[in-house]
Amino acid sequence: MITVLRKPVITEKATKVGHMRQYVFEVDPDANKLQIRQAIKQMFDVEATSIRTVRTKGKVKTRMTRRGPQIGRTNLKKKAYVTLKEGQSIDIVAGEGNEE
Length: 100
Description:
4-stranded antiparallel β-sheet, 17% helix, Alpha-Beta Plaits, elongated, 47% strand, single chain, 2 helices
């Protein structure tokens, strides 16, 4: 279950939605919402009311070398926007969930 959640996303947009009891995590691309909900409950001991997921395609990267251009892609990523119950929060830095 722990491998479903890869890491928390700490960006400007992710911190803006924090006041609405929403937290953003990068998750395994094959994980579904039920698996994400169970992983959140197991890891942080909090209840999620809703989970929204976003899949982002990998970018095409090109670099010039002596042998000509090298073209590749970055990996597909999936993010989960998790909304918690009223009065619950997650301390992202310490990795603990608590009741307020």
